[in-house]
Automatic annotation (TrEMBL):
This is Glycerophosphodiester phosphodiesterase. Gene3D superfamilies: Phosphatidylinositol (PI) phosphodiesterase. Residues 1-225 form the GP-PDE domain. It comes from Flavobacterium frigidimaris. Pfam families: GDPD.
Amino acid sequence: MLKIAHRGAKGYEPENTLQAFQKALDLNADGIELDVHLSVDGHIIVIHDDTIDKMTSGKGFVNTLSLPELKSFLIAEKHEIPTLNEVFNLVDKKCLINIELKNSDTFSKVVALIEEYISEKNWKYEHFIVSSFDWSALQHVHDLNQNIPIGVLTETDLNLALAFAETIKAKAIHPYYHLLNEENTKEIQEKGFLVLPWTVNIEEDIQKIKSFKVDGIITDFPDKI
Ligand code: G3P
Ligand code: CA
């Protein structure tokens, strides 16, 4: 069962920072999950919200700020907002990277970066899984490169997610964990998809979800799995 550290080990370090991803590696997570947006000057920025307001002392939409401007606003007064390249270089093939596309404007840059690391740095497609609630973005990823593993995120409708996953030959379904039970977990797996629920943090929930024999769990506390 894969232990995937949500936004890095968010339970221990500020989310989506290099420190959070290093903590996930230190805790022997099998993977990290992160969120991406595009800066105004075309860099893939690792941050959850579409603004920097919550995480930094600055204000503004990520897609209106340049990389130097984004770097000038620190998280918890000491951490820079990372780019996706910086996270790839930190992880350096040591675990799976689940890239969640928060908008549909990032897909072509993310595909290009994955292809660059595969062709030039000896990474494999298995090092990546691209997920999104925006299924049109996933369709675009699939259209650009059918080898990139895709995870279909859903908060509400497993059947719809399954139907879409079949059309794009996704690797996994990433359901909100309250949607799952033992039976539907098995059904999804029998159709050939991994089941990777999010975000399971409480001991009681972890035990219940593990009992469904899911393929992995996205959690703020990878050491609790
Ligand atoms: O990947 C699943 C989970 O990360 C989706 O929720 O809001 O934490 O990005 P959120
Ligand atoms: Ca996410």
